[in-house]
Design a protein that fits this description.
Elements (H helix, E strand, L loop, with lengths): L1 H31 L3 H8 L5 H26 L6 H24 L5 H7 L3 H12 L4 H5 L1 H19 L2 H4 L5 H20 L1 H7 L1 H23 L4 H5 L1 H29 L1 H6 L4 H13 L5 H18 L4 H9 L1
Helix pairs in contact: 1-14, 1-18, 2-5, 2-14, 3-4, 3-12, 3-14, 4-10, 4-12, 5-16, 6-10, 8-17, 11-12, 12-14
Length: 323
C-alpha cells in the first residue's frame, strides 16, 4: 500500500513537472508571438507576401538544422519517410496561414490583426473535440468554455468597434483573408500534435520548416519576387532574419513542447494573451490607436484567457482523483 502511494506521488510529481514545463513554454511563446505581426507589417514595405514567408521559413530551417542533426545522432528513431509524411500534412495549412496572415496586414494594423486572429481558439476547440478524445476533458470544463466565449467576444469586438470599419477602411476581402489565416492556424495546431509527440519538438519542427520552405519556393517563383533580398538592403534583411529565428524557430519549438505537455486546446487558448503586448508595441512603433470600445473588448479577451488558464489538463485531474 505504501509502495502504491509512493508510486502515485512520484507519478503526480512527474505530471506536475511536465505541466510546469508546458506552461513555461506556452508563456514564452505568448511573449514571442506578440511581435510577429509587427515584423511582418514592417517587412510588407519591402517584401511581397510570398517571398517574405519563403525567406523567413528558409532562415528558420537553417537555424534549427544544427539542433536537428544533433538530436538525430543522439536519439532514436531516425528520420524516415514515415516521419516526413506525418510532418507533410500540417505543412499544408501552415503554408496557407503564413501567406494569408501577411496579406491580412495590408488591410488592418498589426494590433487589430493580433486580436482578431485569437478567434482561432474556437476552431481549435472544435477540431480538438473531433480529433483528440483526450482533449475533451479540458473543453468540457466551464472555465475553458466561458474563457473561450469571452475571448471570442473580445476578439470580434475589436473589429466591430473599429471606426475605420464603418468607412470601409477594412475591406470585406481583408476580413476573409484574416479569417482564413485564423482557421488554418487552428488546423495547423491540431495536425502538428502527432508529429510533435512522435518525433519531439526539435526534429518535428526541423522537418516542418524544411517542407514548408520547399512548398513556398514554387509559389514565390510564380507569384512573388525571389530576388527581393538583393534589393531590400542589409537592415531589412537583418530584421527578417531576427524575426525568423525568434518568431518561427524558437517559438515553434516552445509551442510544440507546450502542446505535448498541456494539450492543443489549452496551449492555443493561452495565446489570447498575445494581443495586449502587440497593441502596446504597435501603438508605440506605428501609432496604431484603439477606441474605448476596442479597449473594453481587449479587456474582455484577457479575462477570457485568465479563465481558460484555470482549466486543468486531464492527466492532472485524473492523477489528483487517484491519490
Amino acid at each position: 500500500m505504501k509502495r502504491l502511494d509512493s508510486t502515485r506521488k512520484v507519478t503526480d510529481l512527474r505530471i506536475r513537472a511536465g505541466l510546469s514545463k508546458g506552461y513555461a513554454a506556452v508563456l514564452a511563446t505568448v511573449v514571442i508571438w506578440s511581435t510577429p505581426s509587427l515584423f511582418m507589417y514592417y517587412l510588407n514595405r519591402y517584401y511581397d507576401p510570398w517571398s517574405q514567408n519563403f525567406y523567413r521559413y528558409l532562415v528558420a530551417c537553417i537555424a534549427i538544422a544544427p539542433l536537428v542533426i544533433f538530436r538525430i545522432q543522439r536519439s532514436r528513431p531516425r528520420l524516415d519517410w514515415h516521419a516526413v509524411m506525418i510532418c507533410f500534412i500540417p505543412c499544408l495549412p501552415n503554408v496557407v496561414h503564413q501567406i494569408t496572415q501577411v496579406m491580412a496586414l495590408f488591410y488592418m494594423g498589426p494590433g487589430v490583426y493580433s486580436i482578431f486572429t485569437r478567434s482561432s481558439v474556437i476552431f481549435t476547440a472544435l477540431l480538438a473535440l473531433a480529433f483528440f478524445p483526450e482533449e475533451r476533458h479540458v473543453i468540457r470544463q466551464w472555465q475553458f468554455q466561458v474563457g473561450t466565449l469571452l475571448g471570442l467576444i473580445g476578439a470580434f469586438g475589436v473589429i466591430w468597434f473599429q471606426a475605420g470599419l464603418e468607412i470601409g477602411h477594412i475591406a470585406f476581402r481583408g476580413l476573409v483573408i484574416a479569417f482564413t489565416a485564423t482557421f488554418c492556424w487552428a488546423l495547423y495546431g491540431i495536425l502538428v500534435k502527432r508529429p510533435s509527440a512522435q518525433l519531439g519538438s526539435i526534429r518535428s519542427f526541423g522537418l516542418i520548416s524544411f517542407i514548408t520552405s520547399v512548398l513556398l519556393l514554387p509559389l514565390t517563383c510564380a507569384f512573388g519576387k525571389i530576388s527581393t533580398p538583393l534589393h531590400a538592403g542589409l537592415h531589412v534583411n537583418l530584421v527578417l532574419i531576427i524575426s525568423a529565428v525568434i518568431c518561427i524557430t524558437l517559438a515553434h519549438v516552445l509551442y510544440y513542447v507546450a502542446i505535448r505537455e498541456i494539450g492543443v486546446a489549452l496551449a492555443q487558448t493561452l495565446q489570447l494573451l498575445c494581443p495586449a503586448a502587440a497593441l502596446a508595441l504597435s501603438a508605440w512603433i506605428y501609432g496604431e490607436r484603439l477606441t474605448h470600445a476596442q479597449l473594453w473588448s481587449a479587456a474582455i479577451l484577457l479575462l477570457g484567457a485568465f479563465l481558460a488558464m484555470k482549466a486543468k489538463p486531464a492527466a492532472l485531474t485524473e492523477s489528483a482523483e487517484n491519490l
